[in-house]
Amino acid sequence: MLKHSNLIEKCLESKSIFTGKxxxxxxxxxxxxxxxxxxxxxxxxxxxxxxxxxxxDKRVLLIRQFRYPVNRVMIELPAGxxxxxxxxxxxxxxxxxxxxxxxxxxIINLCAIHTSVGYSDELLHLFWAYxxxxxxxxxxxxxxxxxxxxxxxxxxxxIYSGEITxxxxxxxxxxxxxxxxxxxxxxxxxx
Length: 191
Fold this sequence. Notes:
Blueprint: E1 10-19, E2 24-31, E3 37-44, E4 48-56, E5 59-67, E6 72-76, E7 79-81, H1 88-100, E8 102-103, E9 106-114, E10 123-130, E11 133-134, E12 146-151, H2 152-160, H3 167-181, H4 183-189
Parallel strand pairs: 4-10
Antiparallel strand pairs: 1-2, 2-3, 4-5, 4-7, 5-6, 5-12, 8-11, 9-10
Helix pairs in contact: 2-3, 3-4
């Protein structure tokens, strides 16, 4: 018997609403655990990877870029969608080079993050990269990115003041703060 089977909803019918280059929107008719029917609108996403590039001396490498859906310039950790037949680690190696002009042979998988379980199946894979090596930056043709090296304590202040509002970056920076400023935690996570 499935754990928590009393909470599971079952799909009766699934209808595709929109299929784009990145997202697939669906509307499903479901039966609830109590036997009633309802609908669930949601987005299928290929998944993505996000990286905390550690520059040493308590500094991480953030990026600044315009994000059309929120119509503002955002400060974020580098990230990108997982291409078909690509592993999350290979995605982040590619994105690190494209967006920052760095590579690393030292990449550690920290955790997975479901970004918005109420309406999307998107899963982000969070990585820590250190011993960065400079290379040629290879941005996508439609990306305009500025590099923003920052002390972790300053980055945390930007979260607390509301300057950094991107969820993946907030989660990643809390991990970075713990790794950089807590030796015990760092030893446990980066072994």
